[in-house]
Design a protein that fits this description.
By secondary structure, the protein is α+β, with helices and mostly antiparallel strands. It is 31% helix and 21% strand.
Amino acid sequence: MHCYDISSAHAADHAVVTTTAPVALGIEFEPMLSRNKSSALRAVHYMASSKVIMIFHSPWWLTGDQPMGGVIISDLPLKTIYYPTEPNKNGYGILLASYTWGGDSNRLLGLDQEEIFEEMMEGLALIHGTVNNLLRNS
């Protein structure tokens, strides 16, 4: 193994390389990678992903007549919401309010934090049939 950024070489029988596919394509392997491995590296497609985590004073989704837990998938900008089924040890309600990929993530990444917050609160209010102000006080 020869390192080009430093003036040293390392002798080894094997090397474990953990990098992204585009970077791996720029590495000169000896012996060369097989055609199938090179094709697999070129076929890897990366996309943006975003997670929005919101912290509430309490886990309001666990209270009431029908406590919630699990996942909701919607066509709202939130897309995928994960509700923990157990409160955290400090009593806060910590919610993965949005998990998005690709174009949905790119759109979300273009918003500032206040716009993201407002969008998440509006979506949660629509899903839960409650007023946005009630969620803000949770």
